[in-house]
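=== Structure Prediction Worksheet ===
Name of assembly: unnamed complex
Input type: mixed (protein and possibly other molecules)
Chain count: two
Listed entries:
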Amino acid sequence: MPAAVAGVGWLCPMELNDYLPILVFLVAGGVIAGALLTLGLLGPRRPSAVKETPYESGILGATPVRQRFSIDFYMTAMLFIVFDIELAFLYPIAVTLRDDGMLGLIVLLVFVFTVVEALVYVWKKGALEWR
Amino acid sequence: MLESTVFVDEPVWLVIIKSAFVIFIVVTAFAYLLLAERKLIGRFQVRYGPNRAGPFGLLQPLADVVKLVFKEDFVPAGANRVLFVMAPVFTVVAAIGAIALIPYGDGTAELFGQEFNLVGADINVGILFLFALSGIGFYSLILAGWASGNKYSLLGSARTAAQLVSYEVAMGLSIIGVVMMAQTLSLVEVVNAQQDALWYIVFQPLGFLIFLVAGVAETNRAPFDLPEAESELVAGYHTEYAGLKFAMFFLAEYVNIIIISAFGATLFLGGFDGPFLPGFLWLAVKVSVLLFLFIWLRATLPRLRYDQLMAFGWKVLLPLATLNLIITAIVVALGFAN
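=== Predicted Assembly ===
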C-alpha cells in the first residue's frame, strides 16, 4: 500500500496523493533558495562599470559574446533525443518483461537491435567524432 | 510478486516536519562532505587540509558560509537579470526535490507515539521521476551559462549540456537491468526485491560500473569536470557568479552527488537493507562509501579531453550498457533469474 497524505482531498485528486511529499520538498527547496538570495543582500554593493564587464581574463572582449559554436553540440542533442526516447520505451517493457515471457523478449530484442543499428549507422557516418 | 511494504497515511504537518528534518540532515551532510573532501584531498596530496577553524577544522563550513554572505554579489552588465538570478534557484529546487524519493528505512517507524513512513514519497515511477528532476537541474546550468553574457560561461554551458545528455543515456540504460530484475520502478520495491534475493551489484556488476561512471559524469566531477575546467574555461557556466548565488550552485552540485550515491546504493547495494543496524545507518554507510569513491577518483585521475569524453560516452559506455541490457533481458525472460 503506497504512502498517502491524509486530509488534503481538497488539494489534489486521490491518484496524485503520493506525489504530495515531493511538492513539499520542492517548496522547501524554494524556501532555501529564497533564504540564500535574501541573505545575499547583506553583502556590500559597490558597482562600477569595469567590474560589471564580462570576465575575460582581464582583457576587454573583442568579439561578440554569443557566437556560433561547433555543429557537434547540435549533433549530440539530436542523437540524445533518439536514444532518450529509446529509454522511455524500454522502461515499461523492462517492468513487465518477466511476465511477458518469450514474446516480450522478442519484441524487446527487435526494438533494441533497431536502435543499435541506428547507432552503428551514425558511428560509421562519423557523427560521433568530435572535431 | 513480492509483498508490498505497508505504509501509513500521514497528516500534512508530519510530512512537513519530516521533510524539514531530512533536508536538514542532507544539507548538514553537504557541509561536512565539503570539509571531508578538502581534508581527504589534502591527505592525498600530503597536506593537512583545512584545520584552523575549530577543532580539526570542523567549523570550516560555517566560516565558508559567513565569508560567502559578505562577498559582493553583483549581476554583470551583459547578463539577463531575471534568468541570471533564477538559474541557481532552479538548480537548488531540483536537487532538494530529489531527496524526497530516497527510501531510508523499511516501512514505518514510531516516534513519540506517531507512526511515520521511512521515505519521503513512495511513487510507482520513482526512478523515472528522479531522472526528470535531474533533467530540470540540467536546465538551470544551461540557463546560468546563457544568462551570464560571458563567452566562457556560454561555452561551459554548451559543454555541460552535451556532456550531461550523453551520459544520461548510458545511465538510463545501465539501470534497466535492475528494473527488469525487480519488475518495478518504485525505489522502495527495488530494495524489497533485493532483500528477498541478493544485492543487485552481484547480478549487475557491469550495470553498477556503468552507473557509477555515468554518475560521476552527471555530477560534473573529476575526471569528467569539463563544464568547469578551470584551466580552459575559467569556471564554466558559473564564471560570473559570486557570493551566495555561487554557493547555491555548489550546494546543488554536492546535494546531487549525495543523491546519485543514495540512488546507486538503493538500486545496486540494497539501500537500507542490512543486518543488525537500523536501515538509515546502513544507507548512510553505503552512501559514505560511494562518496569516498567520488573524492578518491577526483584525487587520482586527470581530466579528460573533451573529444575523449564524448567518445567514451557514446562509443564505450552506450554499447556496453546496451550489451548489459540484452544479456539481462535474455536471462530474465528465460526465467534463470527467479
